[in-house]
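Incident log, structure service

09:12 report received: a user says their structure output differs between two submissions of the same chain.
09:20 pulled the input from the user's history:
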Amino acid sequence: MITTSTFHLRLLPALFWLAFSFPVAAISQTQLFFELASDGIDRAQLYSFEETSEGDLLAGTGNGIWRFYTGTNRWEPTGFTRETYVIKRLASGSLLAGTDRGIYRSTDNGKTWLQRFNIPGTGDFGVMEDGTIVAVDRTGSSGGRNFYYRSTDNGGSWENVEVRFGTGKGTNVVGIGNYLFSGSLNGVKISYNKGDLWETTNLTEPVTALVVTSNGVLVAAAGNEIGQNRIYESSDTGRTWRFADSLPVSIEPIRGSITGISAGKSGEYYVSVEERTKEGESESWNGIWRREPGKTSWGRVALLPGSMNFRLSTPWISSGFEAMISNGDGKGWTKSSVGLHNFAVNHLMSAPDGTIYALVPERIQANWPNSPLVKHSLFRSTSDASAWEMVTDNLSGEALLIDEFGNIYAQRDTVVEVPTSQGVSEVPGYVVITSHNRGEGWERLGTGLLRSIHLENSGGIAVRVSKELGLGFDILYSSDSGRTWQNLRKPKTPWESSTLNGTSALPIAGGRLLLTVAQDDESTQEDERGLYRITFNPAINVEQLSDSLIADDLLRLPNNDLLAAARTLTKRPDPLTDLLHDPGVYRSTDGGESWEIDYLGNAGTMFVDLEEELIFLSPLFSKDGGENWKNISPTYQKFVQTNEGAVYGYNPGLNFQLLDVENGLWRPVLTTGFSSSLISATSTSATDDLFVGTSVEGIYRSTIRSSSVEQKDVGRASALTIRVRLAPNREAASVTFTTEEAGEVELTVHDMLGREGATLLDEYQSAGNHQIEIPLSNLPRGNYLISVRTIYSVTSTIISLP
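09:34 re-ran on a clean worker, output below:
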């Protein structure tokens, strides 16, 4: 007997849902969906910040105004899309916004905005004691005239005020009492009559920034030549200015213009100055310097990539596409999630304690993100990725690894001297470093490319470091959880063309490590290609097991059998004519002593799932522990599995797909969030989350959540099956499922990331066959996952809508 039901489908703007005509009983639900874990302002220049009377923070950006909700670490668009250079809160609580299309005002804390004056662009607002507001035109002067605009009705209406300053444009404007002050390329000007007339002061140097502190002191940053930045202060309402200090020198920077200035709530102030680490370097940075009230000493609190539009607004600072927030005293700064959202994520890793680490390029250029010219920063997050902080910078983007003890391994750029036939050449290289304290404090391990980390059975750690440009390779070993290291293989005297390299390694039983040497070191007379076994206890010993097996990857099965995605090497007198043949799956049952061919065919990266039944030697796939193999495409280099068993395959820099285990097929992952971005890293965390780092849109998290349970008498559905038949016109589908026993049944449709789109059925069902009809006309083309779940079992199938 087949029970039949009909359902009606309705498409909503954000995601598709189903409408039902019957009551739905509560049942334990498990949902898998992806959400942005590093949410932030879309790719846009950050110009300014302002706090609303409700305590939220508004950001003026190239993509309009965004709101930061206090305590959530999330930026959301307000719907106002004009390019916004400055936001100013008035005493009345109203907000003014200076945009590329004039001045706008909001009287409801930024929820809605009305245009009050149409001008090309507004750079700053100055407010006087009587409520008069003066705005400065950010486009500067024309024919010696500087353009200001004035409002006496809380920003409701405006009038032009033309002032002759000479050739300098007004950079910003500040109101103190009944006076106005404007910084310009001709110094600081003062107005006693609401901007109609301006007088010069004794500060006539070009002023790049002007601010008033909480105790009424005016601070100006002056000078625009290299090394000529000066800080001036005025305590008599701007009548006279005194030299306060020159900016400090730290790490011998070449100083450029001051690009921003901001006053803190306790009388301290901050300046940002363009810095270069070496003479002649084109790469510039914005150093953020802090000076305590009444003191002459400075401290640099942050260093951000250079930007011509740097803005400070305590407790927020921004540079380019990045933003940071202070912990309140201005001495410690945390990267806002806006930064992670706008940049590529080159590597994403999970530590044993659940901490998530992301390696993020610090700036964007044409050959990013893997160019050695691009510096990377390491960000640390909570296990749910709800908050991020930068823990170190100046890393390379080549590698990020974490061992089972929580030690972090990364790389920094360096210069390596390489002997050549013409002498010694300097080439870019890498230094391998490690941190035992969650990314705070690093030690040097050696030079080279960090390839892999292996925890062998006795608890020691073997880190394989491949050398660049023919410098051989090292195997570093630690028996004390990564505190001290010894080199098991010394580098050999190189030649220009020597490329000795270990391509694969695997810990095996007895505290041993298998290692493949795939290419010969031409600096010696010996041919060292082949498979090696390293024994660590009781003594370290390296022995060659085979001189003909070249393994691209190695895998150990639960029964201790070894699998190798390998080729056979036939050596000839002339090494250039050597042959690599018979690619396939090789098996060893004696710890690597001997090998037999299991499957003949190209095989690559290996992966075994949590149940140790699904095995990949991509593109080869086995779902029975290696007894039978199937060739499935495309070929993937990396795999990751959620704690619920879903398996994803991906290649760094390309999109990823979900495995249809039953049919041995890869299914595309369809979601708006990833359709236009590239996958660069994936990692599982200590929780039930799956994190995906993208090369454009930051970090996404797939979260498994369970709701409360209100159950009826549930039977074990051990023979749970599902079948979907698509109508010829694709307007509807017939879903048939079978339960062996009576109980609560939930039938859902998901997108290919596992996000639940609709619940088709959620009620008590009798044992037997059941069929429902669902309309599909409102669903866009693509692939969808239909799942049936009981308290004991779950099964799914995929439908493709043309």
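09:41 both user submissions now match this output. Likely a transient worker issue. Closing.
09:42 reviewer note: Helices lie at 337-342. The chain is about 0% helix and 50% strand.
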